Amino acid sequence: KKRKIFSVEDTRYTSIININENFKNPDMNELLKSDLFKDFSRSIKQQLKSPLNKNFIFEENFDLNTAFEILEKTFKRQKEKVDFDINKLKKIYLDLYNKKQLKIFFTKENNENISFTIFSKINNKSIYLNGGRLKNSNSDYSLTFNLALSLMKLRAEGINTIDLEGVNSPKRGFWKLGFGGNLLPYYNISMNN
Fold first, then answer.
1. Beta bridge partners of 103
2. What number of H helices and E strands is found in the chain?
3. For a pLDDT cut of 90, what percent of the chain falls above it?
4. What is the DSSP track for 145-158?
5. Which of 43, 134, 143, 149 is at a distance of 20 to 30 A from 180, taking alpha carbons?
């Protein structure tokens, strides 16, 4: 009789996006003509084509304080509790940034940062770590705009595999899947005594 050494406690899922095309100038015009865009869901495509995006500016900026202010407001807006130590996470992110393994991208409108994404970056792979937006509106597509251009910017820097890190939450899972990745399971296992 075989003895079970491990048990699967939980199965979770993430979305992996593989990007092979090259981008010269990551911007909305280039995005709309790309194969990357063709893989997006109809909803994501509509959000990106919305005239509401016309005043958005995308930029890379290592401003942890602003990112975490937006993150805390995002949690508050969603009536969620921050379930991690923000100061500890800031220290980890600063360490990753100093090792050139972290990127922060912002969407600006009227000279104000209104959404952000944070990615780790190791060799040719990247992992989506955090993101958030200020506005509480179903017609605010600043985070969608940000993530789409972040994917292009990361690819322009040599990244070809991006893990959107978890698609298990109903509030974020369908949105992340809209960017056209492949669903991949991962497991929480425990050792049997």
1. 119
2. 7, 7
3. 62
4. HHHHHHHHHHHHTT
5. 134
pLDDT in tens, 147-192: 999 999 999 999 999 999 878 776 678 899 999 999 888 888 888 8
Our measurement of the distance from residue 103's CA atom to the centroid of its chain's CA atoms, rounded to an integer in Å, reads: 11
Contact indicator for 158, 124 with CB cutoff of 8 Å: yes
pLDDT at 171 (0 to 100): 67
Which amino acid is it at 53? N
pLDDT digits (tens, 9 = 90+) for 71-97: 998 888 888 888 888 899 999 999 999
Helix/strand/coil percentages in the chain, nearest 5: 35, 30, 35
Give the DSSP letter of residue 55.
T
Residues 96-107: pLDDT tens digits? 999 999 999 999
Give me the pLDDT at residue 167, please: 84
Tokens 């500890």 belong to 88
The tokens describing 7, both together, are 């048990």
Would you call 49 helix, strand, or coil by DSSP? Answer: helix
Helix intervals (H) in 22-105: 28-32, 35-38, 42-49, 64-77, 86-98
Among candidate residues 151, 69, 152, 57, the one with its CA nearest the CA of residue 107: 57
Place of tokens 């605010």: 140
What is the arrangement of strands in the sheet containing 6-18, beginning at the earlier edge strand?
57-60, 102-109, 112-122, 125-133, 161-163, 6-18, 182-191
